[in-house]
Amino acid sequence: DAKTTQPNSMESNEEEPVHLPCNHSTISGTDYIHWYRQLPSQGPEYVIHGLTSNVNNRMASLAIAEDRKSSTLILHRATLRDAAVYYCIPAWDTNAGKSTFGDGTTLTVKP
Amino acid sequence: KAGVTQTPRYLIKTRGQQVTLSCSPISGHRSVSWYQQTPGQGLQFLFEYFSETQRNKGNFPGRFSGRQFSNSRSEMNVSTLELGDSALYLCASSSPTGALGETQYFGPGTRLLVL
Quick one: chain A helix, strand, coil %, rounded to 5? Predict the structure, then answer.
């Protein structure tokens, strides 16, 4: 499994951009990087994924380093509803057929 | 499309009992995975089913079992419940092809409390 390192927690002010970093230095060349988030009392929710190029969707942007050893999830304008635990999943364990959810980053958004 | 549904949403059992949880995947999805989430251990993979066959299994004791039906609906069963089995049990479905690495769509979970 690719090991991931994410900050335990981050804070942001409402309406400001948020950059959530993730280090995955042991990622293999073919593994997609997925980001999920889990709002309080809900199941995880898909946010975005990418392989090499930066990706954008209606929820967020994903910036992937050229060496793929790190990525950054960008929320362009944080809202109170973005308060959640954000998980970076850089690998799919093909032996176990599972994605490994680490501890994630707890994002607090202040009004 | 309707999302992943799980029933029941809440459940209280006592030690030694058994429990069956149900998951209905997104229509057309053939892969269903189960996870256990606890404050201490985080989100841990239990097993994954694809086309009625268990394709992958996490590191849980044999008290935890599952199955998948021909309509892709899945159930998981926990026998001889222990206090430590108290957790949020999450089901996720993915892709019509069941390809590994596909995006997973999670249900709201079943919160199990073992007394």
Answer: 5, 45, 50
Chain B contact for A81, CB < 8 A? no
Residue A31 CB coordination number (10 Å):
21
pLDDT tens, residue by residue, B10-66: 999 999 999 999 999 999 998 899 999 998 778 888 999 988 999 888 889 999 999
Contact B45 A31 (CB under 8 A): no
Q: Do A94 and B100 touch (CB under 8 A)?
A: yes
Q: Rounded mean pLDDT of B85-112?
A: 85
- Which residues make Cβ contacts (< 8 Å) with residue B97, sequence separation at least 6? B30
B48·A45 Cβ contact <8 A? no
Query: Do A94 and B100 touch, CB atoms closer than 8 A?
Result: yes
